[in-house]
Amino acid sequence: MYMIVHRYFLDVAKRTGISLDDLYSEGFVGLIKAYGTYDPTKFQGAPKFSTYAVPSIIGRIKEYLKRDGSLVRGPNYIIRMLPKVVKMDEEGKSVKEISEALQRSEQKVRDTLEYVSKQIPFTLEQQITDRNGDQTTLLDSLGVQDDFTGIYVNELLDKLSDRDRMIVDLVMKGFSQSEIGKKMGVFQSQIARRVAKIKKVWKSIREGTETSKNTGTVNKNQAAVAELRPKKVERRDSVKAQKATPEEMKIHNIQTIVDLADWFTDVKLPDVPSIGINRHGISFNASAVEMMGLAKGMKLEIGFSLDHLSLVFRVGDKGAKLKQLSGQKSLTIVNKRLINWLVARSVIQKRYSLEVDQLTGVWISKVELGTKEEKPKGNVS
Questions:
Q1: By the 8 A CB rule, do 282 and 275 touch?
Q2: Do residues 223 and 52 touch, judged by C-beta distance below 8 A?
Q3: Which stretches make up the RNA polymerase sigma-70 region domain (predicted)?
Q4: What is the four-CA torsion angle of 287, 290, 293, 296, rounded to 10 degrees?
């Protein structure tokens, strides 16, 4: 979505003074709308979601530009000349020939052609020049992009509360923030804050740095608990015992309370390595990528241990290829067969923490099992 705005609307934004954030917001609405109507079973896997979503995103942004009248209107002489100049240009006539036919200066013809060239692409079949200087169509250039969009949209919708989903739905239907506020019985400013938070969640997913919703509250609670903790008291008659090393404990199969405890991990914190599983594939957040030393193009072998209720990851040539969306730190595996394999093992699609198995050195994620109808519990993302 960001790529579409930058590639096809950046020049419009610069010339008209429109905020890129406004274009992102409108494109985001078009993206969610496409997600709500996309049904891959109807198309037998073609087109991909990214290709399907592009017209919705572009259409939404174009509607916004037309609705707000933000496009800069050219000088009157350009508007009057525009139809004839475009027609003659398409016929292959030169600037000089057009100038003579219309009895207008060559500079005015050039100004008109430049004005046309800076307008929004109106159809997906329009000829454009790619970065290599080759002629192609807008549709062809978009079709070769990696299909990551569905992963991020799916993860976003999983994060939203019913109330926020309702707000997104009403925005998609064309209601203004004040109208949404009236429908939900709150002030427009409250709706604006909710929309801003939804945008932040979306951005964090794209960048692979999920943020905790209750960070401030957690910090205050931790400070309060710290005050109530008993102070450490040194006992004179205490006996100092020699600590066993981890290696000695493994040899004698000794398990401590640390080993037996079921530890809570807030996988929404940005510094906690985690993976996200949904119907498109598996995503690794920025912390997981750093911990595992992963890079775009590497292959990961994925195993499942029913005894340990864990997914196991290791780098290997027989694994699934990691892909990366331009400018993002997170990595993804988009593989329908992989998801079918996980579904067959009843792995619930949600976000899980990632850790290193100290004995083998592989990475593992404790997972939950259930049916498709069963809603995930715990740290759902």
A1: yes
A2: no
A3: 7-68
A4: 80
Q: How far apart are CA 282 and CA 151, in angstroms?
A: 8
Backbone phi and psi for residue 322, each to the nearest 5 degrees, phi listed first = -85, 135
Residue range 326-369, pLDDT digits in tens: 667 888 998 888 988 998 888 988 888 899 887 888 899 999 88
Spatial distance between the Cα atoms of 246 and 11, rounded to a whole number of angstroms: 61
Query: 160-207 is classed in which CATH architecture?
Result: Orthogonal Bundle (1.10)
Residues 247-258: b if buried by 16+ CB within 10 A, e if exposed = eeeeeeeeeeee
Residue-level pLDDT at 105? 92
What radius of gyration do the chain's Cα atoms show?
28
What tokens were used for 4? Answer: 């579409």
Find out whether 166 and 32 touch, Cβ atoms under 8 Å: no
Residue 249 to residue 331: CA distance in whole angstroms: 37
